[in-house]
Amino acid sequence: MAGFAKKAKTGTALARRVLTRALQPVVSGYFAGDWLAVLDYLQAPPHPDEEVITALPEPRLYVGMSAQAAGMAAEVGIPEDEIHAMLAAFLGGPTSLSPVEERVAALRDWWTAFDQMHAAQRPGMRSLWGLVDNELMAFGPDEHGFTQQLYRQLLPASVNEQVDRLWQSVTLQRHAKSIVSNPRPHQLMAETLGPALEFWHGVALTAWFACEGPYSRAPLSGVADYYGRPLTALRAAGCPISPDLFEELRIAELHLGPEEAIVKERRKLPVGTPIGSFTLTMSHSGGSRREGTVTLTDWVG
């Protein structure tokens, strides 16, 4: 490198003297910006006054500080309320909870309400397809049981408010310095829960539609195969699903009643003939159901 040789007439020069604006892309491209790698390539020792960062400082995560407020207050001899006020000012929020703590608490509240909704399901009720915002946006009723934004109708208002407030803004990958509005905060929240929500909500819906109809995306005996992707992700995260669940679903399927057609419309028409009269019954059916109930309350909770 001619630039290095020019600056190193009396010994190795400092990086800040050698790396001009023109040379910086070269070092970044060939040596990943590592000045020591450049010197090793040139077989030159570093300048004795060279300052090279070889490791990043240990990060400190300010999470869970609110739970330690009482201890910190006693240690420094000030009221606990002042500790909470200082933490709120530091975190830039209305309370001493960190943004992570606040979202974790909101996720717990949401999951509790979600579990209660599934536990309360009984034959004849509408399905909970739409309780989780993970579908394409649509308008109007769905004859197969999907209700757009069902969570607005069934979840507690306080839970919906938390989700709307905490997931209403996002940063864009290409514009990381800007915060923009998120039109679907409940969808982003659902993505936070990842494969756990995808699996449990999906299996609960499968069990419901297998009984109530009109159609089920998979038989109960085929749940493990149908939800293979989230199951693999849960195993990788150290949260595997017990095989006992799939065995119980297989046995439950054996105890369901035979398929019964779901009649949507039935009409009776009187018909007169020279030899007498009779009634013609016409019916229109869509899908089928099976007598029985399969719930996952003991598993999901």
Give your account of this protein's structure.
The protein has 301 residues and is α+β, with helices and mostly antiparallel strands. A hairpin with a 2-residue loop joins strand 1 and strand 2. The model has no long low-confidence stretch (mean pLDDT 81). The strands form 2 sheets. It has a two-stranded antiparallel ribbon. The chain has a two-stranded antiparallel sheet with strand order 3-4. 17% of the residues are buried. It has 4 domains: 41 residues, no CATH class; 31 residues, no CATH class; 169 residues, no CATH class; 30 residues, no CATH class.
Q: In a nutshell, what does this entry contain?
A:
The chain is built from 14 helices and 4 strands.
Q: Which features does this protein show?
A:
alpha+beta; two-stranded antiparallel sheet
Strand line-up of the largest beta sheet: 1-2
Q: What does the average pLDDT come to?
A: 81
Coarse structural class? alpha+beta
User: Radius of gyration over alpha carbons?
Assistant: 32 Å
In total, the number of domains comes to 4
Global shape:
elongated
Distance between the termini: 65 Å
Please outline the helices and strands.
Elements: H1 2-7, H2 15-18, H3 24-31, H4 35-42, H5 69-76, H6 80-91, H7 99-119, H8 150-154, H9 157-166, E1 169-172, E2 175-181, H10 185-212, H11 223-226, H12 228-236, H13 243-254, E3 259-273, E4 276-290, H14 297-300
Antiparallel strand pairs: 1-2, 3-4
Helix pairs in contact: 5-6, 7-9, 10-12
